[in-house]
Design a protein that fits this description.
- The protein is of the alpha+beta class.
- The chain contains 7 helices and 14 strands.
- Strands 1-13-10-6-7 form a 5-stranded antiparallel beta sheet, with helices on one face. It has a 5-stranded antiparallel beta sheet with strand order 2-3-4-5-9, with helices on one face. Strands 8-14 form a two-stranded parallel sheet.
- Helix 2 packs across helix 3.
- It is globular, with a radius of gyration of 18 Å.
- 43% of the residues are buried.
Length: 287
C-alpha cells in the first residue's frame, strides 16, 4: 500500500484597513479556510466594496457558498471546454448564499487536490504561483479604465468575467493569494515587451521562507498578521489586507537573507500611493 499523498494546506491572515479602522467600520475582506482531509485544501476570498456591516456579511456568505459550489466544479474534467460549468458554478453559489442580500464584492476561489490546482476569479483579488522556481501571476486583477475599478460578483455577472486557471497539482511549488489591498506590494507593471504583471519575487520568497522556517505551524499566522499591520504597508494602501499562502514541503532555494516583518516594499515600478485601492467601481463594460 503506497503512502498517502498530502496536499499543501493553506493558512492566512487579515488586517483591517486604516481607513475602515478610523471610521470604526469592519474589515470587508471575507476569508474562508475550510478544514479538509489530507487530499484537499483551498480557500475562498471575497473582498467587499465599501465598509458597512452589511457588505462584510454579504462577502462572508458568498465565501461559504463559494467553497460549496467549488467542490462540485473541481470534479469536472471538462472545465476548460464547457462554459456552462461556470454558469452552474455561479448559480449554485448564489443559491447557497441563503437570504443574505447580495452586495458588491469580488471572488477568488481556489482548491488544491492531488490532481490539480484550480482557481476561479471575479474582480481584482489575485494570486502568485511558483512553478519551476519562478513566480508569476496567472490571473491579473480585473481592472477598468482606472485603478479603482473592477468587476463584482452579481446575479447576472457574465460568464466571460469568471476567469479560470488550472495546473497539474505536482507542477506547483507554492501559492500566495491576496486581496487588492496588497496588489501594490506583490505586483508591479509588466516589463517592456511583456503582457504579464511583474511579480515581486523577493517579497514572495521572504513570505515563503518564513513559512518554511516556522514549518507552517504555530506562530506563523501570528507573524503574518503582524506583517500585514506593518507601517510600510500602510504607506502603500489604507485598504483591508488579506494574505493566503500554501507551499510544498519539498526543499526550495532560499533567499540569501531574511528580513524582519517590517520589510514590505512595493512591487517593481510601483509608486507609493496611499489609499489607491480604497474605493472601487464596477467596470462599465464587463468582460
Amino acid at each position: 500500500m503506497g503512502a498517502v499523498i498530502r496536499v499543501p494546506r493553506f493558512c492566512g491572515a487579515q488586517h483591517r484597513g486604516e481607513r475602515h479602522a478610523a471610521l470604526d467600520q469592519p474589515c470587508c475582506d471575507a476569508l474562508l479556510l475550510p478544514r479538509q482531509g489530507v487530499g484537499l485544501s483551498g480557500f475562498v476570498l471575497c473582498d467587499g466594496a465599501g465598509g458597512s456591516t452589511a457588505v462584510a456579511r454579504s462577502a462572508a456568505a458568498s465565501a461559504r457558498a463559494g467553497w460549496q459550489a467549488l467542490q462540485h466544479l473541481r470534479r469536472e474534467p471538462r472545465l476548460g471546454a464547457d462554459p456552462r460549468l461556470l454558469e452552474q458554478f455561479r448559480n449554485r453559489l448564489l443559491r447557497r448564499r441563503g437570504h443574505v442580500p447580495l452586495l458588491d464584492h469580488t471572488l477568488l476561489a481556489c482548491s488544491w487536490d492531488r490532481r490539480r490546482l484550480l482557481v476561479l476569479q471575479v474582480g481584482d483579488s489575485t494570486l502568485l504561483v511558483r512553478q519551476g522556481g519562478q513566480w508569476h501571476c496567472p490571473l491579473p486583477p480585473a481592472k477598468g479604465d482606472y485603478a479603482n475599478q473592477t468587476t463584482f460578483l452579481r446575479r447576472h455577472t457574465p460568464i466571460g468575467s469568471i476567469q479560470v486557471w488550472q495546473a497539474p497539482a505536482t507542477s506547483v511549488d507554492a501559492v500566495l493569494a491576496f486581496s487588492d489591498g496588497l496588489e501594490s506590494a506583490f505586483l508591479g507593471p509588466a516589463l517592456p515587451g511583456h503582457e504579464q504583471l511583474e511579480a515581486n519575487a523577493p517579497l514572495a520568497d521572504l513570505v515563503i521562507q518564513e513559512h518554511r522556517r516556522r514549518h507552517g505551524g504555530r506562530g506563523y499566522p501570528a507573524w503574518l498578521a503582524r506583517s500585514l499591520a506593518d507601517p510600510g504597508l500602510a504607506q502603500l494602501t489604507d485598504d483591508d489586507r488579506t494574505l493566503v499562502i500554501a507551499r510544498r514541503r519539498a526543499p526550495q532555494p532560499a533567499p540569501a537573507t531574511r528580513g524582519p516583518p517590517g520589510c514590505w516594499r512595493p512591487g517593481p515600478g510601483v509608486s507609493r500611493q496611499p489609499g489607491r485601492h480604497t474605493r472601487r467601481r464596477e467596470v462599465a463594460a464587463q468582460r
